[in-house]
Automatic annotation (TrEMBL):
Molecular function as annotated in GO: nucleotide binding; oxidoreductase activity
Pfam families: GFO_IDH_MocA (PF01408), GFO_IDH_MocA_C3 (PF22725)
Domain named Gfo/Idh/MocA-like oxidoreductase N-terminal: residues: 4-128
Residue ranges of domain GFO/IDH/MocA-like oxidoreductase in the record: 139-283
Annotated protein name in UniProt: Dehydrogenase
Keywords of the record: Oxidoreductase
InterPro entries (alphabetical): Gfo/Idh/MocA-like_OxRdtase_N, Gfo/Idh/MocA_oxidrdct_glycsds, GFO_IDH_MocA-like_dom, NAD(P)-bd_dom_sf
Length: 390
């Protein structure tokens, strides 16, 4: 058995998927089947060719239909603008490809539900990438909640602050088009929603939704835009249609969370941070130090109690066998999460039993649920922060 692999989208996240498939067979056991790295597809031929060369893929394509038509390709990552997901995923599933789609699942809830329907009826596997659940520190904190070390969550405070859009001279792109709620909330806030449920359980309601568009217009680019990179711009501008900043409160039964997402937080290139307070103590995670977490337990001695720093190593999720040097103090970051995600997807495609595999990736139905939460936040924000039940 040989699994042929392609990635559609050669931008920032597309490179992460391309690299992750290269790393995946070096991780854990049992051994994966032989992998063939076939194509990187991007409408920008130059960018697609460069990414294919960089990560050792055999060729590049400019039309996703070439991927769908190739019988030597079995696994495809879809890492393109959300508005294109439905068309591309539909074609790939109809061609019998196994699909790993980036989040959020689509640009509209209607499209996401249609994608979930297609996935349920497909003969192949369709999964969505929710990468942060594979951060060793976040997985460790969840384990401490569930095994009673921390115990029941009392409340959660989480934020995802980014600064990729804080420059008013930064160029217009697809990220700034679409209704309120499709900006910072969909881009980085979608991570907060699934992570909050990963830690606290099922979300039951949202309230206090509020959006801000801090930079109301942006200049048009003069060249191809890749990820969050900057290019030369023209003097012509277009209005920003969606949210630069979003905040809301979430309910999980008796548990409450305060969640905040921004793409205009100057000085925070990738600032995912949270603190969770539980019956037996508390824990916090900061993306700028992802190989450490902070832990506080009530049974610490008076006079010396308080947060301690835990260096993550082979005693924690994903690290043992998942790093070339899998001991504490070596360090790791977000890129490894993509490798664990790719490995889990390839294990499922290869038919390796779930009991011998990494946790499976989320389903398209889970992706719809994530978007239902985002839609509820948008509904709350549109009606002065009203409570919306899920």
């Amino acid at each position: 058995m040989t699994i042929g692999i392609a990635v559609i989208g050669a931008g920032m996240a597309g490179k992460s998927h391309a690299a992750a498939y290269r790393v995946a067979p070096t991780l854990y056991r049992p051994t994966l089947p032989d992998l063939r790295y076939v194509s990187i597809c991007d409408v920008n031929a130059e960018i697609g060719e460069a990414t294919a060369r960089r990560y050792g893929y055999e060729r590049s394509d400019t039309d996703w239909r070439a991927i769908a038509a190739d019988p030597d390709i079995h696994v495809v990552s879809v890492v393109i603008a959300n508005s294109l997901h439905l068309e591309v995923v539909r074609g790939l599933l109809e061609a019998g490809k196994h699909v790993l789609c980036e989040k959020p699942l689509a640009d509209t809830l209607e499209s996401a539900r249609e994608m979930a329907r297609l996935a349920r009826e497909a003969s192949s596997i369709a999964r969505i990438g929710l990468t942060y659940v594979r951060q060793p520190g976040i997985a460790a904190i969840r384990n401490w909640i569930q095994d009673g070390t921390l115990g029941t969550v009392l409340h959660l405070s989480a934020r995802y602050w980014c600064d990729y859009a804080c420059n008013p001279k930064g160029q217009m792109s697809w990220r700034y088009k679409g209704p309120m709620g499709s900006g910072a909330l969909a881009d980085v806030g979608s991570h907060l929603t699934y992570l909050s449920e990963f830690l606290c359980g099922d979300m039951t309601a949202v309230s206090g939704g509020a959006f801000t568009t801090a930079i109301t217009e942006r200049p048009l680019p003069l060249g191809a835009v890749v990820g969050h990179g900057q290019v030369d711009v023209s003097s012509e501008t277009e209005p920003v249609e969606n949210d630069d900043y979003a905040t809301f409160t979430a309910k999980f039964g008796a548990t409450t969370a305060s969640l905040e997402a921004s793409r205009v937080a100057a000085g925070y290139p990738n600032g995912l941070n949270f603190e969770v307070f539980c019956v037996n103590g508390a824990a916090s995670f900061h993306q700028d130090t992802p190989s450490q977490v902070r832990l506080y337990l009530h049974d610490d001695q008076p006079g010396t109690n308080g947060y301690r720093t835990v260096n993550l190593g082979s005693d924690h999720p994903y690290v043992a066998g998942g790093m070339a040097i899998d001991v504490s103090g070596v360090g790791f970051g977000q890129n490894e999460g993509f490798a664990f995600q790719a490995r889990a997807f390839l294990e499922e495609v290869a038919g390796i039993p779930e009991s011998e595999s990494l946790p499976r990736n989320a389903s398209f139905d889970d992706g719809v649920h994530n978007m239902e939460i985002l839609a509820a936040v948008a509904e709350s924000a549109a009606d002065n922060g009203k409570t919306v039940t899920l």
